[in-house]
Amino acid sequence: MKLGLRGKIYLGFFFLLLVQGLVIFAWISHVMKESMLDEIKNRGASIGNSLSVGLVEPMLAMDFLRMKVLVDETVRLDQDIFYTFVLDREGNPLVHTFKNGFPVQLKAANQVSDRGTASLQLLDTGDQRVYDYAVPVKVNGDSLGTLRLGLFQSRAEKVVNQILVSTIIIIVLAIFTAGFVGALLVNPMTRSIKKLHDSSEQALRGNLDVHTAPMLGKNCWDIMLCHRQECPAYKNYHHRCWYLAGTLCPTCIEGEYAKKIESCRQCQVYKQCSGDEIQSLAESFDAMTLSLKGNLSVLKKAEKILSDQKIRLQTILDAIPDFISLQDQEGRFVSVNRTFCEMLGKTKDEIVGRVNADLFPPSHAERYNEEDRKVLETGIPLIKENQVTGPKGSKWLHVVKICVSETEERSKGLVCSGRDITPLKRVQEQLTHAQKMESVGRLAAGVAHEINTPLGIILGYGQLLLEDVEKEGQIHGDLISIVKQTKICARIVKDLLNFSRSGDRVISRFDVNEALEEVVSMVDHTFSLNHVNISRQYHGRPLIMNGDPEKIKQVFINLLHNSFDAIGEDGQIHVTTREAKAGKEIEISITDTGCGIGREEIQKIFEPFYTTKGPDQGTGLGLSVSFGIIKEHNGRIKAHSPPISDKTLAQGTQFIVSLPLGSNRMEGA
Fold first, then answer.
1. Tell me, what's the pLDDT at 505?
2. Which of 81, 138, 387, 493 has its CA 20 to 30 A from that of 510?
3. How far apart are CA 535 and CA 515, in angstroms?
4. What is the H or E stretch that residue 481 is in?
5. Do residues 119 and 134 touch, judged by C-beta distance below 8 A?
6. 577: nearest Cα among 507, 496, 641, 658
7. Do 395 and 407 contact (CB within 8 A), yes or no?
8. How far is Cα 571 from Cα 591, in angstroms, rounded to an integer?
9. Where do the H-state alpha helices sit in 332-421?
10. Structural domain tally of the chain?
11. Residues 533 and 480 in one domain
């Protein structure tokens, strides 16, 4: 486990004192040993010189008793002297203080130097270590012998050791005293740092209500005798007034800390309440957490507003029937609406973050990428119409791509919006078809009017000639053929006139069920001869509408005859009527089990002169006339092959006629 700041300070402080004590101890030891050696030298020299002077006379007189008394007295008076003995010129012992005999080895252990000066040697006797001091005994420069003096080293070392032990005790006491004083100084600092650390941990966990700075004995309102409760610093015990904005002190400058701190440093509140660096750090930390709390509160409000706006915007986008998407510069989808997801058959999570290549076929994706790149580079919007084919069939889309600019020179992304214009295309096709039929109708009306008169003359003269010729002759047969073909031409002219709406109209209120039943009853017997049965399923109530009942009957006759022709023999025609669109329309359905109509042909069956029947079986105007009559009555007519009302039928055709219920107005009426 790593040491904390307090432990590091204590350890460093102790190590510093310990090193300092060891250095002092080593220095004192060295000084003491040098002093001890000097003391021994000086002391030996002093004792030796004094004793050598006293030995001169006895040695001249060879008075061994006096020499013995002198050396014994010297040893007796000083307990540090281990031995004393005197040697003559030849190095023979004259007197000594040894009780067990003179040790011969000591004679040569230390000798006077060649220059005749004293010599000091440290000798080890086995039991003791002594300093041996050799002093020459001279008279007028002549040497009489040598005085040897041995001083105990252990006793001198004992004194030195006692001094060193005292030094160690003093150093240890100094270390502990310094450590105690240091602890008194360090503890408040480390406690403040520990509290600051704990507060920062709490702030990291999201708790910004922490208070690190110590409580003050006197606060700004006490010092300034202020009682303005509206001031943000009043009764605020945890934040210093010079960190707070909007304080009401007369000497304060308005604004945040950076603007007012210079003036606050001259204030008596700051001078009395400001502390050391640790306290200033704690106060700054409290001010920082207070500022962060305010900023976070503002950010949370802004985030909530942005989130609400994002939800509203997404709701608006999802409610728009057009598909909308937003892509970044790399072509990744950033946001899409519900219509876009439904168009691709994917969820929003499956689309966001993907590119065109992930969502569209390779050929489409490559074309879309090229379009996107061009719009982003040029900034020119792209407007186009696309025909796409999907699982549900072909659709027409009106697409607009606009560049979203971050700056005047930089593009941020691309917005693509579009809508399904398939119904509009169908309306355009129907309008084109109606205009085409209108043109053909005008042409047919003109042709019918021009041909009708010659046909009447041909038919009249033909019928007159039939009365004048013999019935069994060739001419009579030829005239019958002329009359017959003329009637066929007259019928075609009549269909053309009906198609061009050149006939008279009689508007009345009538029951569609009754009109349909009248037509069905008229053709029922004829159809049954070929085993074609007609079933009815009428609405329970009368379906009243305003219109020309004869023209509506003509539509029913045309549709029934078309069904009969498609069946030929052995089939079924089913006729139903009902209310549709909440009672606003009448819907008539005529379904057969015939051969059906091809997909390409069903798009053209309402065009004039287009027929799927063989030669001499139809003019191709029946459905065109029916289409015009229904349109004239503000209705619609559609064909489905196979029928949509009965999914079990693999072939056959269903015609659905929709007419307004109870309408009081007809087109052109």
1. 62
2. 493
3. 16
4. helix 474-499
5. yes
6. 658
7. no
8. 11
9. 338-344, 348-351, 356-359, 362-378
10. 5
11. no
